[in-house]
Amino acid sequence: LLPKAVQKAANVVIFVLSFLVIAFMFRQGLSYILQLYSTNRVTETLHIPRAFVYSCMPVGCLLMLFNMTGQFIKEWRGGSSDD
After folding, report:
1. What is the pTM of this model?
2. pLDDT tens by residue, 17-26
3. What angle do CA 69, 58, 18 make, to 5 degrees?
4. What is the DSSP track for 6-31?
5. Beta bridge partners of 42
6. How far is Cα 34 from Cα 2, in angstroms, rounded to an integer?
């Protein structure tokens, strides 16, 4: 419903805010992983390092940042976001 210029500006604001939130979550997850790694804590049942188990958070955030940035660049250049 908005004009194209306003849509583009809104997309930039949404991208920047989303990027900052996910980057913050990545940083927090990474600091938690480093804390778990330094204490050498393992799970009770499988006896695998908890740092390994919780590494999904920073890895997932990093993948989201790459995907989101790629989609934003694609849309900015005029491509469709449905691809």
Report:
1. 0.81
2. 999 999 999 9
3. 40
4. HHHHHHHHHHHHHHHHHHHHHHHHHH
5. 49
6. 45
